[in-house]
Specification:
Length: 564
């Protein structure tokens, strides 16, 4: 619960505490993610009726918050503002019918959320495994509700693009394949150290029921949804601008940002060529990357060896930077790295600690079948997803119960702030000397090139903008899916499978992909402005505390807080 110093009396904090509990009851999946107990055997109501119940709850809660008295206290004012923004952002999705089609999404859709819920469930106790078995056996319920919501979307002519629906079919069937995530739950029980034949039998039965529900949904997509799903991926400038503002908390000039993305990408490309010569002066950039990708000397021999190497990177940074560049609460000194089940979208992601910190913050890597695992471009990811990236930002957010409301600490998230900070953290680690080999610096630059080319692909594809005539990559041509995949292979050195997954992600999640670079650019601008204002008195640690100490906010709001 929240116990804000100096603001105990303001009712917004009690309202926020109650709101999270009531929200968790309406969204058991969110409850599991947050570590709010008592809901781990149930699923969200994904039907139109469930959406209406959530919309009504949000409207009522926002109205109640708006009736609360004004306050002069800094943290209470912040709590009121965040409460209103949080409810408003979610209500906006219902107003525009996003829940009727946007849930068909390669990475951020409903089925990936259902699948990933099992990753953060308790799998160390009898009760935890009993909940896993119950959820696996009843996964047909949220899948049926999902189909009902999508049917309503079809009735209103609100469709997800064909590409996203095809991804759902693939992911549904992959989950129950022999090496799929649901199948792995049964195998995982054998290694969990829980001796209960009843649960073992329940899991096997649940897997059969889940397989039937998953196949029914996959066939429904093929029979009912795909025949009417549009081939067009682009959402157009108006819809894109709305989505981008939701992720950023600011309005950007999309055409200027598109041009800036290209300029920044070409600057990075030039620097990458210079660093490649430090790695091997006898090879060009592409030749250097080919060696780094294929030479076992530059790789972890196994996925487990890779996991341990990434974990040690994060732990070392946490140990060494505590008290110098950051103030790290005891609750987030523990961090973990795990490998995601096969069938997930490729890449890495972070899951914050539970509210009571019984589950530590964890970076998950989805590596597919890769082995050995190249290290050159993954070291920077360890800092982005782990420490001092998301683990510091998200973990610190959960600890700030002395100032932030429970809604702010647990529910509020904007990609421009969160992903901007994580990308800034990568750059900071280079400034602090943690990229101790030139190939790791090259990996950092490739990571940044990935985020820069995302700006180009995401805005260019959704706004149907041509590639500028003065850039050395298909000048003047219109963006296509294949061209976007080629851009990732060319500039970020993604292999074809990862590049294809990435582009499918951008096309189904408009506006999110630009949040990394746009957010980082704003944090760097703020750092430069504060340094210029304070001169020799500038303190980098104090700046970091300014950025992180008020929790996640929109980029406009962050500027207000940092500059005063």
């Amino acid at each position: 619960m929240t116990d804000p110093t100096g603001a105990e009396a303001h009712p917004v904090f009690a309202l926020s505490d109650r709101f999270v509990d009531e929200y968790a009851a309406l969204s058991p999946m969110t409850a599991t993610a947050l570590g709010v107990s008592g809901h781990d055997d149930r699923w969200d109501d994904t039907s139109p009726e469930g959406a209406e119940a959530m919309r009504s709850f949000l409207e009522s809660a926002r109205a109640e918050a708006r009736r609360l008295p004004p306050t002069a206290d800094r943290w209470a004012r912040l709590a009121l503002r965040i409460f209103d923004e949080n409810a408003g952002l979610e209500l906006d999705t219902y107003e525009h019918g996003d829940h009727l089609h946007q849930t068909v999404n390669h990475l951020a859709g409903l089925f990936p959320a259902l699948r990933d819920t099992f990753d953060v469930m308790d799998r160390g106790t009898t009760e935890g495994w009993r909940n896993v078995a119950t959820r696996l056996a009843t996964i047909g319920e949220p899948l049926a509700g999902w189909r009902a919501s999508l049917t309503e979307g079809m009735r209103r002519d609100l469709w997800a693009p064909r590409r996203q629906a095809e991804s759902m079919v693939d992911q549904l069937r992959a989950s129950v394949a022999p090496d799929g995530s649901f199948t792995g739950l049964v195998a995982g029980f054998a290694d969990a150290g829980v001796d209960d034949d009843g649960i073992r039998d329940a899991l096997r039965e649940a897997l059969g029921r889940a397989g039937e529900a998953v196949e029914e949904t996959a066939r429904w997509f093929e029979r009912e949804y795909l025949p009417g799903a549009p081939d067009e991926d682009a959402v157009g400038e108006e819809r894109y601008a709305r989505r981008a503002r939701r992720f950023l908390g600011t309005t950007v000039d999309l055409h200027e940002t598109y041009r800036w993305g290209w300029d920044h990408l070409l600057e990075l490309w030039s620097e990458m060529q210079q660093v490649a010569r430090e790695v091997d002066p006898d090879r060009d950039l592409r030749g250097v990357v080919e060696v780094l990708e294929s030479d076992p000397a530059h790789s972890a021999a196994t996925q487990e060896e890779f996991r341990l190497a990434m974990l040690e990177r994060a732990r070392q940074a946490l140990r060494e930077l505590d008290g110098t560049h950051f103030t790290i609460p005891d609750e987030i000194r523990e961090i973990d790295v795990r490998l995601a089940p096969k069938g997930n979208a490729l890449g890495a992601y972070y899951v914050p600690p539970s509210e009571d910190f019984t589950r530590c913050g964890t970076t998950w890597w989805s590596l597919g079948d890769a082995e050995p695992v190249p290290l050159w471009d993954e070291v920077t990811t360890a800092y982005h997803e782990g420490f001092p990236g998301h683990h510091l930002q998200c973990g610190l957010q959960v600890t700030l119960g002395d100032r932030l409301s429970r809604v702010h600490r647990l529910l509020f998230w904007l990609s421009g702030y969160g992903e901007g900070w994580a990308l800034y953290a990568e750059r900071l680690m280079r400034e602090l000397g943690y990229f101790d080999r030139p190939e790791y610096v090259l990996g950092l630059l490739a990571s940044n090139a990935l985020r820069a080319v995302r700006v180009c692909i995401d805005i260019g594809s959704h706004l149907r903008l041509p590639i500028p005539a003065d850039v050395p990559f298909h000048p003047g041509e219109e963006w296509t899916y294949d061209l976007a995949v080629e851009a990732l292979e060319h500039f970020a050195f993604n292999d074809h499978a990862l590049a294809s997954s990435e582009v499918t992600r951008y096309l189904g999640w408009p506006g999110q992909a630009i949040s990394y670079k746009v957010g980082e650019r704003e944090i760097l601008r703020l750092r430069d402005e504060v340094r210029a204002r304070e001169g020799s008195a500038f303190d980098l640690r104090a700046f970091h505390e300014q950025v992180l100490g008020s929790g996640p906010v929109g980029l406009d709001h962050l500027r207000e807080l940092v500059l005063g």
